[in-house]
Design goal:
This protein is an alpha+beta fold. It folds into three domains: 2-118, Beta-Lactamase (2-Layer Sandwich); 121-205; 213-343, Histidine kinase-like ATPase, C-terminal domain (Heat Shock Protein 90), CATH 3.30.565.10. Helix content is 50%, strand content 20%. The strands form two sheets. Strands 2-1-5-4-3 form a five-stranded antiparallel β-sheet. Strands 6-7-8-10-9 form a five-stranded mixed β-sheet. Helix 5 (120-173) runs antiparallel to helix 6 (177-204), helix 5 packs across helix 11 and helix 8 packs parallel to helix 9. The chain is elongated and about 115 Å long. The mean pLDDT is 85.
């Protein structure tokens, strides 16, 4: 009989020693009477050590006579998370659950069993998720503000410029001959200003993206940015899900828009190709024959353009890569999960 009990205790001890979660048994004076290897690896504490209070318990206010240990003082609270001091003087974030061991002779002094689990990874995951949600919301607010400013430009400034042009036209018909030429020059300046305002409005809020879809919007963007000295070619794979990208569409559009802007303004590119394909992963590739640059410049770059692309790719839950050499052009590749599969 005694041998059977000893075998059972041996198996239980072996089980505790193999657990990934830490097990700490402490008496009422917080002296450790048992600790398994996992708990020791996490905290450095050993049998006989007095385990300090967690960071929350150290800082919390307690009533006179109240037990400082939160888990010990709250009979209905069996789990919470805090930072546990280690023997090395650092802290480890843990999730803690507790129970009490019954004692012989029904004494009131019971050993407390604390099960601890390192929640560093969970905290990091939550932090990344929160950061991604904040980034997504920031981009949404930016798009809403772009739309508001775009409508303001169209409804207010564009209409005002149109009214000025009509007034100048009326003035020209009734003006002396020697003033008509000057008035016509002013009308041309007003028209240029009006064209710039419309272009700004279109860049801020590409209505075609929401009316006709992503494919049409990118094709129109390419047409608008092409010229007799600059060719922009768009190739769309048969599997491209184009108009079914939902909220992803605006991010893809802004990435392409930023890449084209950089290729033309900084790279002085004369040929640019845009390739769109989609299977399990969707892929956007923008390649130009521009001036290119040393890749070391990216590490030290403080420009908004690449930062904007990076944020958009993050919102797509994707990855991106940029490859460039001086005189060899630049290639940007973006990959992100097919939103239709995710949904």
């Amino acid at each position: 009989m005694k041998s059977s009990i000893e075998d059972e205790n041996s198996r239980l001890r072996e089980l505790f020693n193999l657990l990934n979660d830490g097990i700490i048994v402490m008496d009422k004076k917080r002296i450790i009477v048992f600790i398994n290897p996992s708990a020791t690896r996490m905290t450095g504490w050993e049998v006989g050590d007095i385990i300090p209070y967690c960071l929350y318990c150290q800082q919390r206010k307690v009533e006179p006579g109240e037990e400082r240990c939160f888990l010990a003082s709250q009979p209905r609270q069996s789990y919470f998370e805090s930072d546990l001091p280690t023997k090395m003087g650092t802290f480890v974030p843990v999730g803690m659950s507790r129970t009490f061991l019954s004692t012989p002779n029904n004494t009131s002094s019971r050993d407390m069993v604390i099960t601890i689990r390192d929640v560093t990874i969970e905290r990091q995951a939550k932090e990344l998720e929160t950061r991604a949600q904040l980034n997504q919301r920031t981009l949404e607010v930016q798009e809403e503000e772009r739309k508001r400013i775009s409508q303001e430009l169209h409804d207010s400034i564009s209409q005002t410029l149109y009214g000025i042009d009509l007034s100048l036209d009326h003035l020209k018909r009734n003006a002396p001959i020697h003033l008509q030429k000057r008035i016509e020059e002013i009308r041309k300046q007003v028209k240029l200003c009006s064209d710039e305002v419309r272009a700004m409005s279109r860049d801020l809020y590409p209505a075609v993206l929401y009316d006709l879809g992503l494919t049409a919007a990118i094709r129109m963007l390419a047409e608008q940015m092409s010229s007799h000295r600059r060719e922009i070619k768009v190739v769309i794979d048969n599997n491209w899900i184009h108009d079914d990208l939902n909220r992803s569409a605006v991010h893809v559009y802004r990435i392409v828009q930023e890449a084209l802007h950089n290729a033309i303004l900084h790279g002085k590119a004369t040929q640019i190709s845009i390739s769109l394909s989609c299977n399990h992963m969707c892929k956007v590739t923008i390649f130009d024959n521009g001036m290119g640059f040393h890749m070391d410049k990216i590490k030290n770059s403080t420009g908004y353009g690449l930062k904007n692309i990076k944020e958009r790719v993050s919102a797509l839950q994707g990855e991106w890569n940029i490859d460039s050499l001086p005189g060899k052009g630049t290639k940007i590749e973006v990959q992100f999960p097919n939103p239709m599969i995710l949904s």
